[in-house]
């Protein structure tokens, strides 16, 4: 057990499934009190039952039904969470989803909803707890973005934009909160085997799927490995967190050799197109 989390008060958005639930379970095992939120109540109930099974019997575990894109709702929930936990040490803004498709094929409402949930969801939540952290003179805010914020590929324009927006917000907020002894951190999850990824794959363009399968830079991670990496990274001094050699390579290449990295992803796209053509020819024979 890592004593850094024992007795800590944590709120996680989107804690009923996937990476958020993985983080909630890892923190509960470390002795933290955890409240999670999501929209589906039945999933929240199941997740809290799991937290109680692995967590400290003296810790507090609970849930709130919440849509993070609703600012008023988030503000009211924040007050309840602070009251229930008696303050807050760690806020994890994790909620989010991906919708993939060629830019011209996505309705305007898709672009707006992605921003509402992925970007404004994080903004609403962090602002709703900000004054509490300032009053305390302590606390940590963790934002989950995506490795697709390093760069975007075919079909991911709308999603990646919502994840890149988080980066700019987190960087600015980090400096503002520095004066109040509140840490702001930013994690870039890699492709992770979650219910969200399964839904995302349903309407992913065939060429995007093919490109991901053949990519030298893409690997599917388990929820546990990503959640554990996040829990290990939070107490360290680094603002940016990622997991796995594939994320490191993506970050390194796109930061230091952006033109070369773009050429690499373009060649992966062309390769995917050629493989798809071959497969389609074989099927039509
Ligand atoms: N999985 C990946 O490959 C991957 C890669 C990079 C980044 N990420 C990011 O990591 C985060 C977690 O992804 P995941 O794959 O674990 O997703 P997931 O399996 O779909 O779980 C998402 C969680 O967020 C909740 N949620 C979704 N919309 C919400 C809303 N409007 N208000 C409140 N809660 C909401 C969901 O519950 P309800 O549906 O009941 O609300 C669920 O608890 C997301 O921000 C995602 O963009 C994921």
UniProtKB/TrEMBL annotation:
Record keywords, A-Z: Endoplasmic reticulum, Lipid metabolism, NADP, Nucleotide-binding, Oxidoreductase, Sphingolipid metabolism
Tell me which Pfam families the record gives: adh_short
Q: Which CDD domains match?
A: KDSR-like_SDR_c
Q: What InterPro entries does the record point to?
A: KDSR-like, NAD(P)-bd_dom_sf, Sc_DH/Rdtase_CS, SDR_fam
Q: What is its EC number?
A: 1.1.1.102
Q: Does the keyword Zinc-finger apply?
A: no
> Per its UniProt entry, what is the enzyme's top EC class, as one word?
oxidoreductase
Q: Which residues form a coiled coil?
A: none
Q: Where in the cell is it found?
A: Endoplasmic reticulum
Q: In which pathway does it act?
A: Sphingolipid metabolism; Lipid metabolism; sphingolipid metabolism
PANTHER family given in the database record? 3-KETODIHYDROSPHINGOSINE REDUCTASE
Q: Which family does it belong to?
A: Belongs to the short-chain dehydrogenases/reductases (SDR) family.
Name of the protein in question: 3-dehydrosphinganine reductase
Organism (species): Leptospira kobayashii
In the record, what lineage is assigned to the organism producing the protein? Bacteria, Pseudomonadati, Spirochaetota, Spirochaetia, Leptospirales
